[in-house]
Design a protein that fits this description.
The chain is mainly α. The chain is 74% helix and 3% strand. The protein has a 3-stranded mixed sheet with strand order 2-1-3.
């Protein structure tokens, strides 16, 4: 995919990513912090995957989706952080035009799959709590695979749409991106041509990609809450709510940071706040997910201990 020439006949062939800080003395600190965050995130999500595989109690639809979510989280942080670390080591802050659009595509693909997987997990909780008698048939392995495949298909369509749309814009002037990875708001700021249609497309597709899942998640949990409140036993209510609290926490963080990031396109200048939101999207969310899902779940904790003890026994 080649950059298009602007009105003055020139075209930007590469962008300069300023990164998190411009002070070179702080680059070693940033490198160590984000390398540790990357290792912890990948290790944590791989541990969740291993726990799901070794623990028979976790061979359920909810943890099937959680396993897929862990794979997406590893992908999200891998798309952005290793390249940033490479630029810190090489002191080279440029990224080719094609590599920038490739990064944008895969980031939106993986985040999009995350979005729909969280919706599938809410639907799973709805069926498990509100329709327990038909749960096994309505959430069969075939249904699980269909939901995951549909998540990939919708996310792929969304990512491809935005990537093709951004490739139609002209980049002929400034090429400095005040961020540590390529994303739509930052590229919109640099375009020589009008981005009005692109921004409308982002809002329209975003409404479908984010709005529809949010409505489905909220609707599912309204029914779940009503069903749980009808449980007479306090212990039963506590157990039912505990199975949903982790998922709701992840949903709140995921959609909160996403809405803040993409609903501020009208601002004249993107600030360092956008870098903080970017850290949430690419690092904090993937790193927190294994912690959130294992913190209050004794089955996951027991499986994780089995994985850890199994590794030690092999040493």
């Amino acid at each position: 995919m080649q950059p298009k020439s602007g009105a003055n006949g020139t075209a930007v062939t590469e962008f300069i990513l300023l990164g998190l800080v411009e002070t070179s003395e702080l680059w070693p600190v940033i490198f160590v912090l984000f390398l540790l965050a990357y290792v912890v995130t990948v290790g944590g999500n791989l541990s969740i995957l291993a726990a799901i595989l070794v623990e028979p109690k976790l061979h359920t639809p909810m943890y099937f989706f959680l396993g897929n979510l862990s794979v997406m989280d590893i992908g999200c942080i891998t798309v952005t952080i290793p390249s940033m670390l490479g630029r810190l080591v090489s002191h080279k802050r440029t990224i080719p035009y094609g590599a920038c659009l490739t990064q944008l595509f895969f980031f939106h693909l993986l985040v999009g799959v995350d979005c729909f997987l969280l919706t599938a997990m809410a639907y799973d909780r709805f069926l498990a709590i509100c329709q327990p008698l038909t749960y096994s048939t309505r959430m069969s392995q075939t249904v699980q695979r269909i939901l995951v495949a549909a998540s990939w298909a919708c996310a792929f369509t969304n990512a491809l749409t935005h990537t093709v749309a951004i490739s139609t814009l002209n980049f002929c002037g400034p090429n400095v991106i005040n961020h540590f990875y390529c994303d739509l708001p930052q590229l919109f700021q640099l375009s020589c041509s009008s981005t009005q249609l692109n921004e409308l497309l982002l809002f329209a597709v975003g409404f479908i990609m984010a709005g529809t899942p949010v409505v489905l998640i909220v609707t599912s949990y309204i029914h779940v809450a009503a069903a749980v409140l009808r449980i007479r036993s306090a212990e039963g209510r506590k157990k039912a709510f505990s199975t949903c609290s982790s998922h709701l926490t992840v949903v709140a963080i995921f959609y909160g940071s996403g809405i803040f990031n993409y609903m501020r396109l009208g601002s004249a200048k993107l600030s360092d706040k956008d870098k903080a939101v970017g850290i949430f999207n690419t690092v904090i969310n993937p790193m927190l997910n294994p912690i959130i899902y294992s913190l209050r779940n004794p089955d996951v904790q027991a499986a994780l201990w089995r994985v850890v003890l199994g590794r030690w026994s092999l040493v």
